[in-house]
Structure prediction request, 363 residues.
Amino acid sequence: MVIPIFLSVVLIGTIYLIVRTKQLLKIKPLYIYLFYTLAILLSLYSMLSAPMPFTVNTFMHILVVFFAYLLSFLLIFLLSLLVSDVLKLIFRFKKKTFLSILISLTTILFLYTTINAFCIQTKEIQIQLPHLTKEIKAVHLSDIHLGHFRGENHLRKIVNKVNELNPDIIFITGDLVESHYNSDKQTLQPLKNLKAPIYFVDGNHDAQVGVEKLKNNLREIGVRVLENEFVDTLGLRIIGLEYMRPNSQTSDPLSVAERKTIQSIMPTIPISDSMPTIVLHHTPLGSEYISKAGADLYLCGHTHGGQIFPLTLINDKNFVYNRGLYKKGRLQIYVSQGSGTFGIPLRLGTNPEISLLILRPYL
Prediction:
């Protein structure tokens, strides 16, 4: 559903850019067609190739970054053009004024969205849980997306921010990496400096890069990797699920085919009657099976909240739980917007976040 919508938006947006550029500038139509077609096709190819091993070398890395920012600029230019056209219809200003508004809006939006993509905010969420005997500070990280745009230094900044929060426990719900570039053991070293126990479950991008190697690297630096199992700690039962489909009827080309589904695996993992049960999984899908099992809190990510307007609106329709805190019966669901970005390094209408969960006993 998302891919056809995305491709339709790309096609309509490209046609609109071609038509309006032709009207605004005195350039032969052929040159305009060639520029936009090549720019968008090469940018999309570069985005899809970013996880591949051949992009590890410096030249390919530079190309991936260049075309990602080119696609980012074209998207912002398209949004700015749409806004400028609406303003022109309302206020009927002259072409010179129109161009000034268009250039200013494009520049401001491009700078804001690219900077915003790396300005991680701490979001505090208060959550009451049954059977909890004391307050616990938990940090939830998701979708950091180490790769062509984020590396060891970026991860170190996240670690420093998390340590300042002084959490009792840390959860990472997948997509720690997105590319073979910046996914090695050295890039992950800052995680050793976290001052609380870390529990990790994998996501779809981790699987694309090589999930077993990633898991082994994480274990070597002291991260507890959970693979469809539970651990009891701090008066909590933590269940960690590998990236999997919610049920056998759901099609997901990103999931590992031989893995079980949430529907099949949840009945095999015991839910505690004496302590709160927290389930970690990458996506918010399958919440009905986690609710049915009797869990208390479901922590996930994957959606990025849509990352970029107007995709935020599409995500709100595509995911029942897109970002923030929800309730489904006794189950509370928290969907992180993630700390990184996917595809293009932009955020508009969303913020990268570190989620500080204040877990409190029921009054």
Q: What stands out?
A: The chain has a mean pLDDT of 90.
